[in-house]
Amino acid sequence: MKRIEKEFFNTFTDFQCLILAHMNRGDINGVTAAHYNIIEFIMRKGTATGREISMAFNISQAAISKQLKFLISSDLIIKKQQETDHRKYNLSVTDKGRFIIENSETFRKNITKQTASILTSKELENFNYLLKKLLNHVKL
Question: Residue 23: its pLDDT value, please?
Fold first, then answer.
């Protein structure tokens, strides 16, 4: 690795640790980015069915079902049988699940404000441009 790549690696590692340390404040082991996205989707809609989530994320219902079981057992979402069709269930976010989403959003807003206060407008534009470029091209 070149010197600048090592420096970037170390800086990026520190930034990643900052984010992960914050995520762990919820003290919920095993919550993945996929779980987070499902919780946020349900929260933004108010309620959702497994089928709606499956279609929105373009993932099989079997795969979504596995994720939902974890979220329900972790008390992050609840499922209630629909009154009109007892074969269907509506999913909604619990207070614990809402805490994860709101806490993460607050964290991102705080990081954004701090970054904007540290960088000039031009630096912030460049930083945003570079992050977008990375997001569009880095494949994991």
Answer: 62
